[in-house]
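Late entry, evening session. Most of the bench is empty. Finally got around to the prediction I had been postponing all week. Sequence below, unchanged from the version circulated by S.P.
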Amino acid sequence: MTVKEKPKLAIYWASSCGGCEIAILNIGDKILAVDEAFEIVFWPCATDFKYADVEGYPDGYIDLCLFNGAIRSSENEEMAQLMRRKSKVLVAFGSCAHEGCIPALSNLTTAADTFDAVYIDNPSLDNPAGTLPQTVTQVPEGDLHIPVFHNTVRALDQVVPVEYVVPGCPPESPQIWAVLEAVINGVELPAPGSTVIGASHLAVCHECPLEKHEKTIERFYRPYEITPEPGLCLLEQGLVCMGIATRGGCGALCPQVGMRCEGCYGLLDGVEDQGANMVSALASVVGAGKPGDSEEDMEQQIAAAMETLVDPAGTFYRFNMAQSLLHRMRAGSNGNGNEAGKGAEL
């Protein structure tokens, strides 16, 4: 009797918090079905695999790779290239791999400033010599190498082609299982090419049961400033809920417990920039002026309302900076029209 060979599964963790790895385990006892259906050939978070093991596999040996984490360092980039070469299907798994997520907020500054904040200008650190990590350090045993810290954080598909994207910070367990089950059962997936799977094509607002009215907003609140009234739309209460500009599929879990949607499932189909889409949405609900008010008075009222919106970049681009039209801040000009420092390294 011929035993059918199991498909090969790899799971890798680049620049991220590790929540995507935990989310995989949150599928509960179905993890046993994953183990039964797949041969796990690389999962360094859970099992003792080495990079050399993957390097020794033939190209295309891995049937499915779930790659979570943004591309922050030379090691992340080398592993993205390696997993792409060894995998038939490469999935950008979770928001960091999908759109940069929290690591990509550092694109609002430079690598040099990041190192300064962590290793120099840090009240909890004792570093009088101002020592910074070095990519190569000589020791009696030889040279020690650590990864190069890139100036710009990128999403996975900005480094290598991917077949599919599973969004979320982290992806919700039902969506994870639905994707894995489809592979296990041989269900035909959509045409590959950075295609989003395991999520909805509608906004989070379409899943949200909170009651909505036609209401204008005179000011915005940070989450700690108010206790929202249960059952009512958070945006209408002045909390910048990103659900109106965010892909659904999560079940609107955050708004249902009084927490605004932060936008982790990414932009909607046909939208080029999630933050710009949200700004446009807010412009339609900011209340300013009444009949008889001058244009100058209305401008002042709008400005006063917008001044209560704290940290717009961190609010509108918390998860999608790497894929946004902004991408990163301009670090200055090198004199010939190019951005100085973009792609530079420490």
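Two things to note before I forget:
Strands lie at 8-13, 39-42, 62-68, 71-73, 87-93, 136-139, 142-145, 149-154, 164-166, 195-196.
The chain has three domains: 8-103+153-196, 109-150, 204-323.
Will write this up properly tomorrow.
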